[in-house]
């Protein structure tokens, strides 16, 4: 009897432990994706060679403009380019020779080493939405973003399993002066998350603040010798490199911090309407921009970017999730691999005003295209709404949940003795079912990806629980994640030093809202 009682207590304790495990707060981040599937290649070698030849022709005959940047013009002259005013023309082959020193893959270190990421190769790193001045949620609707909204997004990113990166300007906190908000945003990323993050690019001095704060967070020696930031440098397409973005690029490249050199393509407005013509311009701009990072400092990490959308010829509004954008992104991925550079593109792009069916269709198209095109760094992977004007809390968690499907798809299909399941087929035989067979019992926990958000309950249960649609479910999940958020530990001395740096920098200048 004693043995029976002991066994009952053991079983009861195990069940209690499992229930406790299911209900306890667990903050888990999946490792960055390592693709085991082939990239989709839409262009053959002859087409790629023609695009490359025409991009060199653009650089040699038409050139690119480096505006209000005498130092950049001097660098190009010294490298052998022809400079006329702010127009720089590159001899055929010069840019390709310069970019040979750019690394094909690099590590971006997080303050939690377990969350560092490898950018390049067959890897895919997912980062959230970047840049919107507005936010939207189910309760408050559409409104200007605040710093509290920003901090809330950083917390959601920290709690999101499938998101590898904290991102940068997840929304633009308009209640903080323009010249000071980068300090608050960096402080939030550094203290509320332990995932990798992005630096400020809105002014060269703000890029330097980003570097200085990283030296506090990581230690000066480590931050000087390692890449701890990735930052977005947009090209003013067509063929223009402005002094603000280039000033930030110069700071980051000189400090061995990574830059995403990214043409900003709206087909029909900032690039030709044709896919091939757009790829020619994208490649020309990337060649010039990446080459410039290596003029600043050979070996500086850099990512080839391509933000791609088309335009509605009736309204002039950008469109997302379209076939043409996918074709350009697939082609750009092939060009990036031929240059031996990491590739940034795609995201949860949509033009919808709400997290509705339009948003879901367009986002699904954009995310899957990103996976198949060989993207290594996917900015805007969750939260994007209204053509990038809005960061949506509900869409953030909807998209973040769906990023799990990218992880699953990237695994490919394993074919071995276990997955071939001959024992199961023998055990069940004709007319049976597999629910209780040994193979199912051994594998059911990991056999299928499972959403943490979507509803698969019977109609009656769904109705009794309030007949909630996906937006309502997402709103509840946002609240749950915020309620269970756990701030990652940080050395109090480092936290205090960061606060002191921010306070001192803010006190050194008057507020400016323009």
Please describe what this structure looks like.
- The chain is built from 19 helices and 20 strands.
- The chain is α/β, with parallel strands linked by helices and 514 residues long.
- It has 2 domains: 1-409 and 449-509, Trimethylamine methyltransferase-like (TIM Barrel, Alpha-Beta Barrel); 419-447, no CATH class.
- Strands 10, 11, 13, 14, 15, 16 and 17 form a 7-stranded mixed beta sheet that branches.
- α7 (204-218) runs parallel beside α9, α12 (357-372) packs parallel to α13 (393-410) and α13 crosses α18.
- It is globular, with a radius of gyration of 25 Å.
- The protein starts with a helix and ends in a 7-residue tail after the last helix.
- Belongs to the trimethylamine methyltransferase family.
- Its EC number is 2.1.1.-.
- Residues 1-22 are annotated as: Disordered.
Shape call: globular
Main beta sheet: 7 strands, mixed
Mean pLDDT: 94
Q: Count all strands and give the number.
A: 20
Given helix and strand content, the structural type is: alpha/beta
Low-confidence stretches: 1-13, 16-24
CATH H-level superfamily of the largest domain: Trimethylamine methyltransferase-like
- Proportion of residues in extended strands: 5-15%
Terminal Cα span? 80 Å
Brief write-up:
One of its GO terms (molecular function) is methyltransferase activity. The chain is an alpha/beta fold and 514 residues long.
Task: Walk me through the topology.
Blueprint: H1 2-23, E1 33-34, H2 45-62, E2 64-66, H3 70-79, E3 82-84, E4 87-89, H4 94-98, E5 105-108, E6 117-120, E7 123-126, E8 134-137, E9 141-144, H5 147-159, H6 181-192, E10 197-198, H7 204-218, H8 220-225, E11 229-235, E12 240-241, H9 243-254, E13 258-266, H10 275-296, E14 302-305, E15 307-311, E16 318-319, H11 323-339, E17 343-344, H12 357-372, E18 377-378, E19 384-385, E20 390-392, H13 393-410, H14 417-420, H15 422-428, H16 438-447, H17 459-464, H18 470-483, H19 492-507
Parallel strand pairs: 2-12, 7-18, 8-20, 10-11, 11-13, 13-14, 13-15, 14-17
Antiparallel strand pairs: 1-7, 2-4, 3-4, 5-6, 8-9, 15-16, 19-20
């Amino acid at each position: 009897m004693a043995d029976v009682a002991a066994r009952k207590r053991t079983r009861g304790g195990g069940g209690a432990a499992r229930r406790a495990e299911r209900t306890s707060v667990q903050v888990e981040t999946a490792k960055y994706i390592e693709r085991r599937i082939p990239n989709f290649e839409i262009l053959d070698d002859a087409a790629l060679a023609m695009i490359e030849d025409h991009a060199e022709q653009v650089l040699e005959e038409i050139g690119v403009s480096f505006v209000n940047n005498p130092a950049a013009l001097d660098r190009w002259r010294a490298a052998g380019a022809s400079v006329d005013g702010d127009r720089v023309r590159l001899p055929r082959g010069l840019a390709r020779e310069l970019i040979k020193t750019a690394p094909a893959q690099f590590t971006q270190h997080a303050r939690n080493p377990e969350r560092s990421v490898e950018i390049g190769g067959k890897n895919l790193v997912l980062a959230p939405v970047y840049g919107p001045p507005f936010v939207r949620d189910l309760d408050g609707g559409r409104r200007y973003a605040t710093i509290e909204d920003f901090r809330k997004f950083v917390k959601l990113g920290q709690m999101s399993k499938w998101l590898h990166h904290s991102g940068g300007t997840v929304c633009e906190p308009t209640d903080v002066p323009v010249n000071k908000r980068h300090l608050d945003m960096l402080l939030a990323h550094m203290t509320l998350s332990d995932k990798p993050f992005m630096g400020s690019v809105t002014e060269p001095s703000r890029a330097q603040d980003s570097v200085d704060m990283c030296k506090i967070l990581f230690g000066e020696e480590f931050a000087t010798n390692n890449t701890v930031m990735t930052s977005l440098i947009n090209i003013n397409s067509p063929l223009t490199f402005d002094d603000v973005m280039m000033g930030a690029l110069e700071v980051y490249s000189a400090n061995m911090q990574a830059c995403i050199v990214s043409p900003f393509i709206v087909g029909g407005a900032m690039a030709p309407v044709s896919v091939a013509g757009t790829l020619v311009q994208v490649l020309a701009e990337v060649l010039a921009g990446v080459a410039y990072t290596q003029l600043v400092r050979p070996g500086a990490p850099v990512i080839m970017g391509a933000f791609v959308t088309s335009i509605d010829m009736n309204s002039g509004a950008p469109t997302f999730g379209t076939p043409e954008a996918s074709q350009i992104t697939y082609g750009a991925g092939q060009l990036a691999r031929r240059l031996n550079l990491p590739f940034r593109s795609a995201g949860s792009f949509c033009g919808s005003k709400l997290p509705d069916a339009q948003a879901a269709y367009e986002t699904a198209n954009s995310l899957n295209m990103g996976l198949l095109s060989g993207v290594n760094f996917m900015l805007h992977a969750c939260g994007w709404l209204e053509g990038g004007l809005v960061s949506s809390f509900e869409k953030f968690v909807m998209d973040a949940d769906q990023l799990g499907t990218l992880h699953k798809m990237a695994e490919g299909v394993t074919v071995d003795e276990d997955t071939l399941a001959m024992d199961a087929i023998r055990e069940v035989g004709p007319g049976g079912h597999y629910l209780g067979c040994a193979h199912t019992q051994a594998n059911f926990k990991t056999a299928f990806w499972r959403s943490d958000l979507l509803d698969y309950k019977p109609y009656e249960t769904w109705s009794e629980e309030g007949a909630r649609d996906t937006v309502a479910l997402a709103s509840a999940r946002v609240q749950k994640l915020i309620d269970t958020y756990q701030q990652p530990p940080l050395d109090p001395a480092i936290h205090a030093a960061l606060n002191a740096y921010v306070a001192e920098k803010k006190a050194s200048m008057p507020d400016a809202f323009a």
